[in-house]
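Sharing a chain and its predicted structure for anyone who wants a worked example. Both blocks are below, sequence first, tokens second.
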Amino acid sequence: MRRPLFASLIAAAGLCALLLGPARAQQADDAVLLADRVEIAGTDRLIATGNVEVLQGTTRLTARQIIYDQSTNMLVIDGPIALTDGPDTVILASDAALSTDLRNGLLRSARMVLNQQLQLAAAEINRVNGRYTQLYKTVASTCQVCGKRPVPLWQIRAKRIIHDEQERQLYFDGARFEVAGVPVMYLPRLRLPDPTLKRATGFLSPTFRSTDKLGFGVKIPYFITLGDHADLTLTPYLSTNSTRTLEFRARRAFRAGTLSFEGAVSEDDIREGELRSYAFVAGQFDVGRGYALNFDIETVSDTGYLLDYGYSDKDRLDSAVEIARTRRDENFRANITAYRSLRDGESNETQPTITADLHWEKRFTPALIGGSAGFTFDLHHHYRRSDLAFDSADADLIVDGRDVTRASARLDWRRDWLLGNGMMIGALGALNFDHTSISDDAAYSESEFVVTPQAAVELRWPFIRRSAFATHILEPIVQLAWTPESDVALPNDESTLLELDEGNLFSLDRFPGGDVYERGLRANLGLRWTRFDADGWTLGVTLGRIIRADDLGQFTGYPGLEGTKSDWLAAVQLQLPNRLTLTNRALFDDNFSFAKNELRASWSTDRLSLAGSYIWMESNPLEDRPLDVNELTLDTAWQVDDNWLLSLDWRYDVEQDRAAEATFGIEWRNECVEVDLAVSRRFTSSAAVDPTTDIALQVSLSGFGAGRASQRHLARGCRG
């Protein structure tokens, strides 16, 4: 127990005066001494013993005994010693001789711990000016060492290590890297960042990769800091199949946004004599007054380069610039996009390669009629490179050179009334003004201006039944919609992919684009039932279809929507309290012949995430689907324990009776090392890309740089 004796307090105050002088007695960085016993020996020595603590600024020292010698102005300290310098550095030693400000001196049989991760054991440690710490005959590692595992998984032995606290760097002289005690590499000089440094110029963890086309290779990234707000990463990639590749990534942060640039340049045996490359540029900026500017540029030298090197699985590139602003009652968006298709069956001459859109929408409440209303203005243009005014040899029924410009204005309104018996009656409508100009199409020589009104009335009557076991909600919905027929037949370039689902069952229009409107008199019918069980599970069912007064031929060729009666839409969702979710959506006719069926199941726990799906769709040339789609997919991740993580992504083509893609991943992590292994196989082929297997391995050492701090809890057990 510390003794608050009057003599001890006087002696402690005398030590402070000796160490720092009376003029600094009230400074924030003055030293404070606490001890069980303090005595003065002779005229120039002061001895503090028993639970000794010295506090100065962010530095804290604890020891068994401290002797202050005024003649040498040094502290002689007997351990065990613990010296804490700020929140990130701890030094343990058996004995030491330090200056009074603790910034210079020598510690013997010492160990330094940085950021509670990196341990450096040394025969002696020399502190210089409070900035440099020199360690001699040193072993460095972040691996846990105990009686059960006396040899760390990896360690670096060195003659000397210098830690620069200001630059937060570690300099190794005569470094020898060992794995499980076996030397594997010798480096005369080595520099590594300490665990507190987030960004530093130097090499990053290498990645070993093997593919069928490129053979076995290695990527060695080199990270370059360019000030506090920019960096550059250069990654040479060499493989046995004579590929010479340089990957690059540049990033810059501005006050109002960010800019990134990534790409690669290659020479290989796949396309001999050709220089292959790709580049992706992306930026996001706040330009003021709530407007955001976003842009990206995507380019590649040939159609197979991205897949050959595993950079991306995109088969259409899109380069775009957009400015947008969203407020509570207003939305504005303007963009220009340039497309480039990498697909075998698509021509960039006859596909729309440039599109421009402007959208402005304002929501408001009408003063006289109530409800919710909105005004929308759209401006659209798409351009094809070809100038042919007819469909050529591809016979896709689309004019090869057709360009379209359209200006549209829309005024819409909706209001609902709740009746005394629980019925809800809704009225909704819209008035559309469209001016369309078409060029490079022999069938259209003049611009067209069309006014299209839309109107609907809706009846909903929800029924609720409650019991001690569950709550049931049954809601029949009837919506009667009308849009007049039109003698003007405009081409359909934007609304070629049609869906019937819960989201648009009660909609005025099933066409997603603005070039075509669903016309005629029709009834949208639906029934929703939901059960909320007292045990925590929920079951929801939706059933509906569309009945038209006349078949106007707008949906001819689209299974599920064509004819006077659409297929039945059935959707079921089951949510169980054990985090299991089942969802099924299907389209079928009166004879239960299915046009589409999709089943999705997902289940997750703290350690296991499992999701699978099955989808079947009829072939449809209008949607560029010449064959039936019949596929199974599986996505799973299993955290076996604190160290092991297994993952599997798998897609199987039932129609072709073969796997389409598969990726298997293994991650092993502990307190000092991370190992990531991924094996992927693409089974499908095209004119530009053959089936290939890709194996990637990355090994990273924790404790160098600040990015590994989150892995501290993954320490191996040291019981026994």
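Comments welcome. The helical segments are 6-20, 305-309.
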